[in-house]
Specification:
- InterPro entries: DUF8015 (IPR058328).
- Keywords: Membrane, Transmembrane, Transmembrane helix.
- The chain is mainly α.
- The chain has 3 helices and no strands.
- The chain has one domain.
């Protein structure tokens, strides 16, 4: 059976892929579809990073992962507005 983190990763991947599919197959602009999918995936990212993070034996670089995700969110919004 899939663990919590497997389900979270699957949810993120499905949301991001669905944004691309909606943008490609409907009249919704691709940039808008991507921004909405990124924003919809953000709670899953925060759940995996902060609310229910894995407990490694060594310190994990969660701050780096959070900064990279925020860069993706900002990039998607800038592309949509530009």
């Amino acid at each position: 059976m899939a663990e919590h983190y497997d389900r979270v990763l699957l949810a993120i991947a499905l949301l991001l892929a669905s944004g691309v599919l909606v943008g490609a197959l409907t009249a919704v602009p691709m940039q808008l579809a991507r921004v909405v999918s990124v924003l919809a995936a953000t709670p899953f990212v925060y759940d995996a990073l902060f609310r229910n993070p894995p407990r490694p034996t060594e310190p994990a670089p969660r701050v780096t992962a959070a900064i990279v995700w925020q860069a993706v969110v900002v990039w998607a919004i800038i592309v949509a507005l530009g």
